[in-house]
Design a protein that fits this description.
- This protein is α+β, with helices and mostly antiparallel strands.
- The protein has a domain of 73 residues.
- The protein contains three helices and five strands.
- It has a five-stranded antiparallel beta sheet, with no helix packed on it.
- The longest helix is centred in the middle third of the chain and has 23 residues.
- The radius of gyration is 48 Å and the shape is rod-shaped.
- The N and C termini lie far apart (140 Å).
């Protein structure tokens, strides 16, 4: 009968090929610790990074909202013109031959009549006789060049404004055609 030590096949399966003779120094670390030291260190998988189109789309959407909000603030503060406001009709151009030196529209008051001796792009209003079809000043607003002041004026169809470097000289004339 063979014992574990006597059976060469059992010895090769269950025992190391090197036998201890008792003369080797004792290893202070057990075999289990030596094996685990040789295993690779397993790290946690890297965190998925945020990328792709999602953040870019969100960033562009936020930028668009900020631009719209900024434009709305400028419109409310009357820095930009209101795009939804209806524009007044252009001033009609008429030729007036005054008998005396023409007085400019700078002195026009409500009830006076004026005529445009310039062009539609560069109007030059002068005082004129109040005849049928003439432009009659319905209201005058001093110290402003904001033509939205004319919105509440009854019969308003045309406006003229003068914008000076000195704010006190600015004015707006709200006008309508005389019947």
């Amino acid at each position: 009968m063979y014992t574990h030590d006597d059976d060469p096949a059992a010895r090769s399966r269950h025992t190391p090929t090197h036998r201890r003779t008792g003369n080797e120094p004792d290893d202070p670390t057990p075999a289990v610790h030596r094996i685990t030291e040789m295993l690779p260190i397993v790290q946690a998988p890297p965190r998925p990074r945020m990328g792709g189109r999602g953040p870019a789309i969100i960033g562009l959407a936020l930028l668009g909202v900020c631009v719209i909000a900024f434009a709305a603030v400028l419109i409310v503060l009357r820095v930009l013109p209101d795009p939804f406001e209806s524009a007044a009709e252009p001033l009609p151009v008429t030729t007036v031959t005054p008998s005396a030196a023409p007085r400019t529209a700078r002195f026009a008051q409500p009830g006076d009549c004026v005529a445009n001796t310039g062009t539609e792009e560069d109007p030059d209003l002068v005082m004129a006789p109040c005849e049928s079809g003439a432009l009659q000043v319905l209201a005058r607003f001093d110290a402003t060049s904001d033509t939205r002041e004319c919105k509440g004026v009854q019969g308003y169809r045309y406006h003229y404004f003068f914008d000076s470097e000195l704010a006190g000289l600015d004015f707006v004339l709200c006008m309508g055609k005389r019947p």
